[in-house]
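Moderator note: this is an archived Q&A kept for reference. The question asked for a predicted structure of one protein chain; the sequence and the answer are reproduced below.
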Amino acid sequence: MDALTRRRFLKDAGLVSLGAAVTLGNATSRVRGTEAAKKTQVPLLPNAAELPSGGRPIKLFCCDLNGIVTKDSHPTTIPAMPQDWAYLDPEEYFAWHRDFGINIFFLQGYAWGGYAFYPTQLGLVAPGPGKDLFPKIFRMAGKAGLPFCGYFSIGIDPFVSNMRKEWVVPTSRNYYPKGVGLLAPESPWTDLLCSRVTEFLRSYPVEWINFDCFNYGKVNSMISQFSPHLMSKGRSRRSSAGTCPRQLPKLRRKKA
């Protein structure tokens, strides 16, 4: 499969609303992505002065490090293994996104495959340089003045769901992703997830976090008929639903 480049992206996508520069046929008349990110013809909002963005549109383009595409006659997106994205060059990856004209950076902190792209004491980490991918790009974004959005999966962690099978919503393994199952919020999984998020924010005070897979029993929709977790049936008094802090302490990014 051909690698996705800025030129190919613009050619295939046509009019792009992500702030990417428009290819005009020759290099001398091309608008650079970083310059395009600062320009917009969209009228500013009435309360623009009160918003962190100044009322300008958010321009975001990102790779989904949760998956990879198979290289065969029928390309299919499948879950990424920890090593699949671990050896990305942080500088090249950062520059590639900037070239599209983004004004906010997005990167998975903890992939739904069950591993982190940063050092953690609460789970698995991507091998080799993969454990430093998030810290390096987070620092680059800070120096460039770009706000940051991280990522956590609420209901999927294949490692945890197979090591702690009693934490999984029964029958959820019958649906995508097959055999993995969704973790029940009534189980101790919530304690672990909240601890991971707290640990993450102490080191990387991002402006936003995308909490993905926010479902009970089935990804992208709720199951109308399913077997609730045992803790929902009153067979256990153990409930960790209230262990997450209602309000996280205000965290400020340190100046680079």
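Archived answer notes: Residues 189-203 form the longest helix (15 residues).
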